[in-house]
Design brief:
By secondary structure, this protein is of the alpha+beta class. It folds into 2 domains: 190 residues, Immunoglobulin-like (Sandwich), CATH 2.60.40.3880; 42 residues. Helices cover 31% and strands 42% of the residues. The chain is extended, with a radius of gyration of 25 Å.
């Protein structure tokens, strides 16, 4: 009886005025020995139960996030002519990769209170704990700056192409230095800076072929991996020496 009442209550709820129907150009990413990065096309449509509102502009936000990982951020200072670590902040969780793309400027597409609730912009997805210094926010900014320079953090304002407030698409570039794991693609629809619908899907990123074999060997049989690495190094050194001797003749 309780289950029947709950089902009837659920059916009685009003349908969403706007709802995301999503697609991906690829449902997984394979990291091989020659992997130099990849692109993912996120595309979709907006299903409606009512006419398009006239007085508000539709915002579309696409985020792709890699697995979270703890990070220790240190600050160096010059003491007695030597650069030494002076302060540090422990980042409890930071995505190994994060890209956020929008069809409008970020300040127009999402309000601060909604960003705080859903964790959309890069500073909102990084959590710092155990800060021992007063300006811990500077360490977060430094982490963002370093990873942005490596292509791991991307802010792509205007990169979402929205047509007739119905069809949208965005291309996200994944760099070569990806961390293996489950990547989460998250799409938000906003009106007047407030989220009206969201959609989440995952994209597996896995090492395959030789990369997978070497990874498993290093983690499951470290002795054999080390012995193989030493043998390859000796062989390479001997080969270089022999080639140099032949050239001298």
């Amino acid at each position: 009886m309780i289950r029947l009442c709950a089902l009837l209550l659920l059916l009685a709820l009003p349908a969403k005025a706007e709802e995301i129907v999503l697609g991906l150009s690829r449902d997984q990413v394979a990291i091989t020995a020659t992997f130099e990065g990849s692109d993912i096309l996120v595309f979709g449509a907006i299903k409606r139960e009512a006419p398009i509102p006239d007085r508000s502009e539709l915002g579309v936000i696409v985020t792709v996030a890699g697995p979270d990982e703890p990070v220790l951020v240190r600050r160096k200072d010059r003491r007695l002519g030597i650069w030494v670590n002076t302060d540090e902040v422990e980042v409890d969780a930071a995505p190994s990769f994060y890209a956020v793309a929008t069809n409008l400027p970020m300040r127009d597409v999402i309000k601060d209170v909604e960003d705080l609730r859903y964790g959309i912009t890069i500073p909102r997805v990084i959590r710092s704990v155990g800060a021992q210094v007063g300006d811990s926010a500077a360490f977060t900014r430094a982490l963002i700056r370093i990873r942005a320079a490596e292509g791991l953090y991307q802010v792509l304002e205007g990169a979402v192409d929205l047509e007739q407030e119905t069809l949208f698409r965005a291309a996200i570039s994944l760099p070569a230095n990806l961390t293996e794991g489950e990547y989460e693609a998250h799409i938000f629809l906003t009106r007047n800076g407030r989220v009206v619908d969201e959609y989440i899907t995952t994209i597996p990123v896995r090492k395959v072929g030789l990369e997978r074999w070497l990874y498993n060997l290093a983690h499951e049989n470290a002795f054999l991996y080390g012995l193989m690495s030493l043998t390859i190094a000796i062989a390479a050194g001997w080969g270089a020496s022999a080639a140099f001797t032949l050239l001298r003749r």
